[in-house]
Design goal:
Rossmann fold; binds S-adenosyl-L-homocysteine; 9 strands; 6 helices; globular; alpha/beta; two-stranded antiparallel sheet
């Protein structure tokens, strides 16, 4: 692990201010962004200076760590309460996972690329984050630990996978970007007794959610 020095902390405070200006208002989410050292999630320390720029960044296997604004936006929509069970699809670098841990969630997260799953498992353990990581296909969810209070998808899904709705409690929230390669719309869905209530929250751009292609 790298040090978290005054320069990193200063850059993080600036990032929090930037996200406030961009419309993030949930104080707990902003505090989590202010706390998690995002530079630890970027493998090469030569790129440290990009860690607190509001941009996505390559993390290997052709994937990216999501833009801080996107992480904050999805976290805000998820309305996480301490102690809730949250399922994340697309662990990637583990940055969003760490934010969910800071929000007090009991986190389960799935990644399809084995090298990312392994490196992120080590990173989060080194950082003392206790998340339950799995290597597999997030399309199927993680039925062994279901139901979940909240589900967050951090890759662009062609449609809402039914398995994820099935594994949500009644009153639970699913936050998911839906769309193709050209971009996605962010949706939040609340599971009700009779179906789902769906809201759209604008355009985003994610790496694709890929079905049935778990990589060793
Ligand atoms: N939350 C991550 C975002 C990483 S990008 C972060 O902040 O770093 C999205 C991730 O979703 C990629 O690592 C990609 O490999 C993964 N992914 C795509 N389709 C998937 C699927 N069907 N199951 C599990 N993970 C998937």
């Amino acid at each position: 692990m790298r040090t978290d020095d005054f320069r990193h902390q200063g850059l993080r405070r600036k990032l929090v201010e930037e996200l406030k200006h961009k419309g993030i208002s949930d104080a707990r989410v902003l505090a989590a962004i202010g706390k998690v050292p995002r530079h630890q999630f970027i493998d090469d320390s030569a790129f440290d200076r990009f860690a607190y720029v509001d941009q996505p960044f390559p993390i290997g296997c052709g994937q990216t760590i999501s833009q801080p604004y996107t992480v904050a936006f999805q976290s805000e929509l998820l309305k996480v309460k301490p102690g809730e069970k949250v399922l994340e699809i697309g662990t990637g670098s583990g940055y969003q996972t760490a934010i969910l841990c800071e929000l007090g969630a009991k986190v389960y997260s799935i990644e399809r690329h084995r090298p990312l799953y392994l490196s992120t498992k080590k990173r989060l353990a080194d950082m003392r984050y206790r998340a339950n990581l799995a290597h597999g296909d997030g399309y199927k969810g993680l039925p062994v630990h279901a139901p979940y209070d909240k589900v967050i998808v951090t890759c662009g899904a062609p449609e809402v996978p039914q398995a994820l709705l099935d594994q949500l409690v009644e009153g639970g929230i699913l936050v998911i970007p839906v769309g193709g390669d050209a971009g996605q719309s962010m949706y939040s869905l609340v599971k009700t007794a009779t179906g789902v209530e769906k809201k759209e929250h604008g355009a985003f751009s994610f790496v694709p959610m890929v079905e049935n292609k778990v990589r060793g």
